[in-house]
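Researcher: Please translate sequence to C-alpha cells.
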Amino acid sequence: MTKSKALDIRKYPFQSTDALLIDANIWLYVTGPSGPSDWRAKTYSKALAAMLAARSHLYINVLILSEFINRYARLEYSRYSGSVPYSDFKDYRKSTDFKPIAQAIVVAVRSILQFCSRIDSGFSTLDIASLLHEFEEGDSDFNDQVLTDLCRRRGLILATHDSDFRDQGLTVVTANGHLLK
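Model: Translation complete:
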C-alpha cells in the first residue's frame, strides 16, 4: 500500500474547490456525545467551520451515516447508568430510555445533512473480489475499503481521525498524530 498524504486539519487552507468526504468519527466529535471539553471536538468543530466558511464541497454516504448513527447509539448505551439494567444493546434500543437518545441522534443527522451532499458509494461498480481478498488478509475494515475506493474514484479528500487510512494512498486531513507522522 501507498502511504496517504496526511495534512494537518488545523493548518489546512480550505478552499471552495475542495471536495471532502467527512468520516463518521469527525461527525461524532462535532455533533455526537463526546462533549465540548474533548480536544478533538474543538479541533474538528473549528475545521468544519473553516470548511463551511471556504464553501468547500462536503460529502457523506450511507456507510458513514450508518456508522455515525450506530456508534452514537452504542456510545450512549455504554454511558447509560439508569435504574433499569438492560441485558444488551438491543433491549436498551427498544426501551423508553433510548427514545431521547434516538431523537438526539436524528437531530444530529439532520444537521449533518444540511452541510453535506449525499454521494453514492458505487457498490454496483466496486471490485468486490479485490476488496474481499484484502479484507480476508485481516488488515482492513470493509467499510474503510469502500470509502477509500470512493475517495480514489471521485478525487475526494478524506477528513478523518481514523489511523486505518494511513496506508491507503489518499489525501487525508486530520488532527490524528499517528496519521501525521
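Researcher: Any highlights?
Model: The longest helix spans residues 62-79.
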